[in-house]
Amino acid sequence: MEKTVNQKAWFLVLPVLLLVAFSAVIPLMTVVNYSVQDTFGNNQFFWAGLEWFEEMLRSERMWDALGRQLMFSGIILAIEIPLGIFVALNMPKSGFWSSFCLVLMSLPLLIPWNVVGTIWQIFGRVDIGLLGYTLDALGINYNYTQDILAAWVTIIVMDVWHWTSLVALLAFAGLKSIPDAYYQAAKIDQASRWKVFRFIELPKMMGVLMIAILLRFMDSFMIYTEPFVVTGGGPGNATTLLSIDLVKMALGQFDLGPAAAFSIMYFLVILLISWVFYTVMTNLEKREG
Amino acid sequence: MDWMAWTWPTAIFFAVIASLLITFTVLAIKFPETPRTGILRIETTRGDRLFITLLGSAFINLAWLGIVGAQQPYALIVCLIYAAAVFRWV
């Protein structure tokens, strides 16, 4: 038989390869180069070896930021995933109201991040913001610029407001793909609502939920704009998450070496977690057939 | 290459990774393989195992730097043992 495989099509991938090289690979290589050197500007570099990595590994500031970051991601996942599923379960399945809900749910996703930050920054203000003013009038001491708990609650509620829709939309897509026969079978068996959820809906949603968790984890782990606009990392350093700290270090203090070492470790953690998620996801799919 | 602030050690580091990638690409073309399932209970090809090795090695080096903090080259020996284990059992 004549050979019909033609590998020349791979050349069509070249433009993408170039694009990725210039937008991701080369900048990353530059960061690696910076991480082993010291600079005082003027494009002059001095060899520093692994000093910055050592300094970062021993830096309390980085571990604290990592702790806050993990706490932030953990909390928003623990709220957004169950809430998203709950919303999806209660959405109309078809007809006008279904489309209406879908459009309504997509709205927060369309708002640029710095605008979301500004909305909540104003919304929470005690003097002119609806939320801040109301809470204050109710006698609750709420001031996100001075109180750590208030600052945390604000950025978490903001993230939940902004991104729960994404989880809900994904979960809804998962629910829609379940054939009616499953529900009919459950009805014949007189399965309770909980059992329908536990043994039909949840397993069938697993794939999209994994994607939702992965997306939300990655996004929240790299979050910068929204908390920065609202709290600026304060009060003190209470809401200084990893990327805010990184920008402070790299651009505020112009410590390119330590910031580069920090970025590489940050990148490695993200790479590891994404790989774990991706592997779990693809293996789940394979097992399901 | 001044604008990227290259140094010899980083150049060698990237050259090693690039040559590994090229070697494994050539291997994959010359000797196609079927994925296998190892102790992690996930299907892996040679490329996957290389990825696991490289990523793990990065963390081994960081851990060495953080815990031992001296004689960094010895971390590479741990990495090689780790690599051998990954290619044998994962």
TrEMBL record, chain A:
Residue ranges annotated for the ABC transmembrane type-1 domain, each copy included: 66-277
Pfam families: BPD_transp_1
Spans through the membrane: 12-36, 70-89, 101-123, 149-175, 196-218, 259-280
UniProt-listed InterPro entries: MetI-like, MetI-like_sf, Sugar_ABC_transporter
Main location: membrane
Superkingdom as given in the UniProt entry: Bacteria
Membrane topology: Multi-pass membrane protein
Signal sequence annotation: none
Record's keyword annotation contains Transmembrane: yes
Family (UniProt): Belongs to the binding-protein-dependent transport system permease family.
Protein name (Swiss-Prot/TrEMBL): ABC transporter permease
Species: Aliiroseovarius zhejiangensis
Automatic annotation (TrEMBL), chain B:
Keywords associated with the record: Membrane, Transmembrane, Transmembrane helix
Transmembrane segment boundaries: 6-29, 50-67, 73-89
Family annotation (InterPro entries): DUF2160_TM
Highest taxon above the source species: Bacteria
Name recorded for this polypeptide: Membrane protein
